Amino acid sequence: MLGKTPKATAHRPYYNCGMELGFWERTSGTWINAATVLAGTLVGLALAGRLPERLRRIMVQGVGLTTLFIGFTLAGALNRVQGGTVDGLIIGLVALVLGGLLGEWGRLEDGLERLGHALKTRFQGGGRFTEGFVTASLLFCVGPLTLIGSIENGLLGDDTLLMIKATLDGLSAVALTSAFGVGVGFSVLVILLYQGGISLAAASVAALLPDPATDPRVLVVTGVGGLMILGLGLNLLELTRIRVASFLPALALAPLLWALAELVS
């Protein structure tokens, strides 16, 4: 998740070359990302018993403040998009509201929490297991590095962006685990399914996204994702409680709304 929108890579042709790559070459970044999160979780668990509460709290607050900054930065992508005559910010707002309504109707946040509770019971996790699982799953999977990095990995075998993401996620996992416990580590299941799935499916979307870094559909997803990341930052700082998972449908609605605005404008 963490990181800024990558610059355009015009020298990299996005054509359907993924079929020539092996499974490891197309998903290497995802496996490395999962490994760094697990390593960060182990370090966080080792520190948790030795750090006083005030130090654990300050670590999470540091991640929270950084998350807010990244969220603001990514949300700015909406200012770079225009769907016909409709401003990108309007598209993002409508996507977020409609997506939030759909997410609450489908009780996505509750579903993710139920999965966290099931894992907690199955593996006898303690403390704030579910909160850590939900927070880490969203934090590590919402953002442009996940989307663009997975597409590059799946198409070209280039895991550079996912390696950057893996480093940032691993460091964040240390701080989150020290506060929430082992539930953070179980977010690797979501990383493997979501991020790995995008990498494996990348070849099929190559024709639709000739340059993912500058494509307006990716930019609106980035902007909406940035707004969701802002919500995660507020939650980490315990300023309020935003049901961020309920907004997940907005990520799918944003490019559809952009296409509609292009069509009718």
From TrEMBL:
<feature type="transmembrane region" description="Helical">
    <location>
        <begin position="242"/>
        <end position="261"/>
    </location>
</feature>
<feature type="transmembrane region" description="Helical">
    <location>
        <begin position="218"/>
        <end position="236"/>
    </location>
</feature>
<keyword id="KW-1133">Transmembrane helix</keyword>
<feature type="transmembrane region" description="Helical">
    <location>
        <begin position="89"/>
        <end position="108"/>
    </location>
</feature>
<keyword id="KW-0812">Transmembrane</keyword>
<feature type="transmembrane region" description="Helical">
    <location>
        <begin position="171"/>
        <end position="194"/>
    </location>
</feature>
<feature type="transmembrane region" description="Helical">
    <location>
        <begin position="129"/>
        <end position="151"/>
    </location>
</feature>
<feature type="transmembrane region" description="Helical">
    <location>
        <begin position="58"/>
        <end position="77"/>
    </location>
</feature>
<keyword id="KW-0472">Membrane</keyword>
<dbReference type="Pfam" id="PF04474">
    <property type="entry name" value="DUF554"/>
</dbReference>
<dbReference type="InterPro" id="IPR007563">
    <property type="entry name" value="DUF554"/>
</dbReference>
<feature type="transmembrane region" description="Helical">
    <location>
        <begin position="31"/>
        <end position="51"/>
    </location>
</feature>
<protein>
    <recommendedName>
        <fullName>Transport protein</fullName>
    </recommendedName>
</protein>
